[in-house]
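Quick one, tokens below:
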């Protein structure tokens, strides 16, 4: 059965999806830098609701165009009512010349009927190696990885940003955003030029904590102009939604695309450090950032609680696997001192930061107290470092340790500012 017949037989679209227009897009699309038609490469297709899944055959020399194919098709299919395109790639091992313009539907797996081909790129799914060694029962929706994902050392440096630091946790609710804004302000007090990028697409809180919620950036030459907050260059998806009530109900590809747009299509000034507030978890945004944004290092925020440590451990493991150095761990909500009687209590347990530090041989950058003033000041858009509350000195001490690591890692210069 041809893919076109398959499409008609399994087509179960949403009302907004236009079947005939989808067929036209797939039949008329030509592969980049060639005259070969995509329709000759399609081996499987399925539509469920407003999600289209497609499997295509490619060859190694087509690697540089995989992302373009995905993006071109996604843009064209969006006009047909498709909200999400999942493109799976079966990579043939050797390149062959195209035998004829119309061949290809009945070839055995691994034989060639096409020209140039592509391997996996940034946000595309893994490439499946279509050789005799591939088990016949292999699931095309869960293909084995045949090529390593892009690595940090291959990501070009941003022309105006010297260092990128990720503030991450693996878990929500541990004070990651509060740490981000205070760390950025503390690094600024050390004399560095600092920016803040809010990568928590689904739950942006940086605008509130820096006192510029409701403000929107200017557009200059089709680029965002970052907002100023206490001398920091700041940008968040929260600055683009208009208010605090609008949900960002996007699927993974659109969310990661928004992150890359905020990073690449923003007129960042010359910065010594860009601090990125990461979303919780180890999903699409974390992987996309690791593969497409040059990162100097990551800072892990956790509470002493065992549940938080479990998720922080996953975050550290992810950064280790994508070659992003972990600069250290910050233990937040470490201890609480009663404002009435002065009694000190470890509400979330003890020794969590020390445990991570010893397990992964990374520095314990500091401990932060559980204090109502930290929360009150952050909610008011006046972070601790600005107002000098109970945690200000701790944030400054942590910033000094991070700045020292940046200087140490800079092998070509004696200073980073």
């Amino acid at each position: 059965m041809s893919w076109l017949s398959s499409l008609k037989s399994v087509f179960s679209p949403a009302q907004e999806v236009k079947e005939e227009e989808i067929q036209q897009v797939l039949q008329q699309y030509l592969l980049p830098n060639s005259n070969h038609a995509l329709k000759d490469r399609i081996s499987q297709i399925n539509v469920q609701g407003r999600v289209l899944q497609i499997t295509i055959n490619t060859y190694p020399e087509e690697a540089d165009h995989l992302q373009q194919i995905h993006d071109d098709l996604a843009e064209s299919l969006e006009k047909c009512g498709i909200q999400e395109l999942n493109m799976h790639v079966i990579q043939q091992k050797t390149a062959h010349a195209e035998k004829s313009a119309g061949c290809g539907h009945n070839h055995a797996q691994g034989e060639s009927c096409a020209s140039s081909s592509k391997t996996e790129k940034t946000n595309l799914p893994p490439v499946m190696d279509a050789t005799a060694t591939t088990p016949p029962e292999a699931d095309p929706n869960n293909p084995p990885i045949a090529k390593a994902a892009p690595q940090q050392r291959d990501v070009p440096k941003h022309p105006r940003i010297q260092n990128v630091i990720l503030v991450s946790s693996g878990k929500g609710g541990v004070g990651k955003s509060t740490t981000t804004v205070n760390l950025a302000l503390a690094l600024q007090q050390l004399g560095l030029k600092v920016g803040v990028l809010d990568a928590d697409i689904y739950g942006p809180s940086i605008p509130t904590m820096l006192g510029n919620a409701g403000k929107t950036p200017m557009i200059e030459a089709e680029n965002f102009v970052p907002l100023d907050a206490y001398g920091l260059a700041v940008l968040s998806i929260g600055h683009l939604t208009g208010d605090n009530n609008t949900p960002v109900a996007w699927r993974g590809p659109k969310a990661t695309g928004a992150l890359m747009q905020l990073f690449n299509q923003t007129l960042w000034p010359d910065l010594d450090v860009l601090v990125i507030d990461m979303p919780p978890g180890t999903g699409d945004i974390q992987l996309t950032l690791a593969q497409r944004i040059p990162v100097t290092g990551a800072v892990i925020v956790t509470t002493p609680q065992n549940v938080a440590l479990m998720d922080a451990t996953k975050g550290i493991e992810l950064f280790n696997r994508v070659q992003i150095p972990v600069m250290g761990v910050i233990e937040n909500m470490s201890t609480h001192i009663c404002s009435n009687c002065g009694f000190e209590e470890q509400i979330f347990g003890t020794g969590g930061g020390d445990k991570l530090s010893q397990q992964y041989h990374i520095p314990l950058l500091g401990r932060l107290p559980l204090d109502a003033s930290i929360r009150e000041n952050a909610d008011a858009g006046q972070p601790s470092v600005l107002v000098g509350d109970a945690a200000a000195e701790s944030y400054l001490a942590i910033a000094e340790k991070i700045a020292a690591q940046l200087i140490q890692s800079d092998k070509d210069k004696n200073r980073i500012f």
